[in-house]
Amino acid sequence: MNRRWTLASSVAGAVVVALDGTVLTVAQPRLQRDLGASFAEVQWTSTAYLVAVASLLVFAGRLGDRYGQRRVFALGLLGFGAASAGIGAAPGVGWVIGLRAVQGVFGALLQPATLGMLRAAFPPDRLARPLAVRTAAIGLAAAAGPLVGGALVTGLGWRAVFFLNVLPVLVFALPALLRPEPPVAGSRTPLDLPGAALLAVALACLVHALTARPVSGAGLAVAAVTAALLVRHERRVASPLLPTAVIGSRAVGAALGVLVVVSAALFGALFVATYVLQRRLGLDPLHSALQSLPLAVLMVASAALCPLPLRRFGARGTTTTATALLALGVLVLSGATSTPALGAAFALLGAGFGTVMVAATQVIVRRAEVAVAGVAGGLQQTALNVGPAVGVATATALMNTGTGPALLALAGLAALAVPLACALPRTDGDDAPAGTGGVGPVTHDGDQRVDGGAVARR
């Protein structure tokens, strides 16, 4: 497998998804006006996608493990681009909502595969750099999204932002289909369809309940009951959707917990910060965006530089420091009123989050066997979808107490990630792939251990 092509494809897939989310936010007001949509319908253009993608990420990762990460990546990118083009030509808001759900299905196929391809292409001890490149690219896309979206909407209309996704399909998806797929290590693993259905229902209900205003108690209850049924099912089935080699790892569980908590704190803080900047400080949207620019800059820089502290301090030391920085950033933001204080707060948020993204993701992907790398990638992406929903729901519930107290509470939430980070591996030896027990060097020949202890040829 060509590593440069794999890295470029992984970055392209991640950037397409990141850009799509940010440019949609800019396009929604014009979309609402042109299609005569209600506010509830416009909200569903986001909710339909979130529910679809969050509910299917893990199962989509399993499909990549079984049928090949490159093949599933190509299918996901093709479908994502086709759905985007369909949205650009949609005659009404109902079509937009339906196609956004379809886009979410293909986005679920695409996202875990971008990580699964990297795990298959790079030795475990060389994963940090490609993950850093991928995360930095996501940060750039998130920063550029509002600018790109604003320019397209202003010059060409809201439909243009969806046609933006067509070009990457031609450049990366079609060549991926034409390249021969190497033998798949987990191709004989049965699909746990009942487990996939239970997980999809639990996550769909959870995300929908959290994105509803107010939060749906009934949705949370259904999610909890379904999750309990899933746990019972997974303990009894011979080939579970969630392999013990992945979810049974203390390090992977801690890394997933860190990603949920940190992303919840960050996105909750950003939700509150919008009101601080525009209502309390009286800034217009453009100046608000410029004020928060240090977040994007430091996120990109910290992600790019993260492999250095990872080599020196390990995942535990690097992530613990980064989560503390992010919690400090939320704390500074809670009392910031001047431009220097706000800039420092956003810089701390960006530095902390960019570093955590690379360090925690490396633990999740590196410890996964190649045969279950897609599931590991799906869990990582699920954490990054559930976390922001939790954070915004928490921030919304706290806003009645005032922006200052709400941010203090979110700083406390961010601080919860510090003890979770302390459970991460301390050294590279501790961070060996699952199944090695952390003992002995990692081999880089053609043999890779797969779930269940069997050996498969890559």
Automatic annotation (TrEMBL):
TM segments? 43-60, 72-97, 131-152, 158-178, 215-231, 252-277, 289-310, 317-336, 342-365
**Segments for region (Disordered):** 432-458
Gene3D superfamilies per the UniProt record, alphabetical: MFS general substrate transporter like domains (1.20.1250.20), Multidrug resistance protein D (1.20.1720.10)
Where does it live in the cell? Cell membrane
A Pfam family the protein falls into: MFS_1
GO cellular component: a single term: plasma membrane
Q: What membrane topology does the UniProt entry give?
A: Multi-pass membrane protein
Q: What is this protein called?
A: MFS transporter
Entries under InterPro entries matching the protein: MFS (IPR011701), MFS_dom (IPR020846), MFS_trans_sf (IPR036259)
Tell me, what is one Gene Ontology molecular-function annotation carried by this entry? transmembrane transporter activity
Q: Which domain of life is it from?
A: Bacteria
Question: Per the UniProt entry, what are the Gene Ontology biological process annotations, in alphabetical order?
Answer: response to antibiotic
- Keywords from the UniProt entry: Antibiotic resistance, Membrane, Transmembrane, Transmembrane helix
- The answer to keyword Transmembrane helix applying to this record is yes
Q: Where is the Major facilitator superfamily (MFS) profile domain?
A: 6-429
The record's principal subcellular location, in a coarse class, is membrane
